[in-house]
Write a structure and sequence with these properties.
binds flavin mononucleotide, about 15% strand, two-stranded antiparallel ribbon, 12 strands
């Protein structure tokens, strides 16, 4: 019997050197949200995998809710990530960057000057988070995005995906799981909007689908994956009706768009189902 784990795998146009995929893990080592040598070493040490998904990385200053998470929205960050992608490619692995906008799972003192905590609604996420400046603090109440601001936020994801390609990444994973901004839009309670981005399953899905569609147009469908955690209560994601219908709808739409993969995370042992 052959050992499949150590055989190559074709993911779209990429050939993975084996079938081990490293899950995204936030490490909180990016001082000032910029890459550093410790992070280059960390990824290089793990480049025996077929595919690495990076730690959650913000496409916007507004999405840097946790202390010391990296970004991918300026040239300094691109230059830092380029060192990571070069180091990983030198050992034969492929690497996707996970685009994670924290949305309302955030505290304003963690954000750079001028940035703000945003979400589909102004409902504050229950719970506390670490800040380097003030220790543990309750989440900040978010600003509910206007329709125009939603569209600008979508553009931030698309821009980040283009910068990711400039930085040498093989693709991007859109983090639509674990209660961060995209899941805040998908959720039928946190998203109480009355515009085109709220209400029906199709409207709540629109934020993600527009990001996916425009990102695919910018960098190619084989370079875009999506992570979901249906039925999760993580990060104060409340139960709502139509969960099955929502993910059924999203999966079919993303399949039609031809994304590289869907990455499902099962929190069910300790959540609300
Ligand atoms: C310290 C830590 C950081 C994590 N950071 C992220 C992250 O940035 N993005 C993400 O999608 N998942 C993140 N996760 C979730 C993991 O990717 C993974 O789904 C989780 O650990 C469950 O996998 P396991 O059952 O093999 O432990 C994190 C998990 C841990 C323990």
């Amino acid at each position: 019997m052959s050992n499949h784990l150590f055989q190559t795998y074709n993911l779209g146009q990429l050939t993975l050197q084996n079938r081990a995929v490293m899950a995204p893990m936030t490490r909180s080592r990016a001082i000032n949200n910029i890459l550093n040598d410790l992070m280059v070493t960390y990824y290089q040490q793990r480049a025996g995998a077929g595919l690495i998904i990076t730690e959650g990385t913000s496409p916007s200053p507004n999405g840097l809710g946790y202390a010391r998470i990296p970004g991918i929205f300026n040239q300094e960050q691109v230059a830092g990530w380029r060192k990571v992608t070069d180091a990983v490619h030198a050992k034969g692995a492929k690497i996707f960057i996970q685009l994670m906008h924290t949305g309302r799972v955030s505290h304003h003192v963690n954000l750079p000057e001028g940035a703000k905590v945003i979400a589909p609604s102004d409902m504050t996420a229950a719970g506390d988070m670490w800040t380097d400046a003030e220790g543990m603090k309750p989440h900040t109440q978010p600003h509910a995005l206007t329709t125009e601001e939603v569209k600008a936020t979508i553009q931030e994801y698309v821009n980040a995906a283009k910068l990711a390609i400039d930085a040498g990444f093989d693709g991007v994973e859109l983090h639509a799981a674990n209660g961060y901004l995209i899941e805040q839009f998908i959720n039928g309670v946190v998203n109480n909007r009355t515009d085109e981005y709220g209400g029906s399953v199709a409207n709540r899905s629109k934020f993600l689908l527009e990001i996916a569609e425009q990102t695919i147009a910018a960098i190619g469908k084989e370079k875009v994956g999506v992570r979901f955690s249906p039925f999760s209560g993580f990060n104060d994601i409340p139960a709502y009706n139509e969960v099955t219908e929502t993910y059924d709808y999203l999966s079919k739409k993303l399949n039609d768009l031809g994304v590289a993969y869907l990455h499902f995370l099962d929190h069910s042992p300790n959540d609300w189902i």
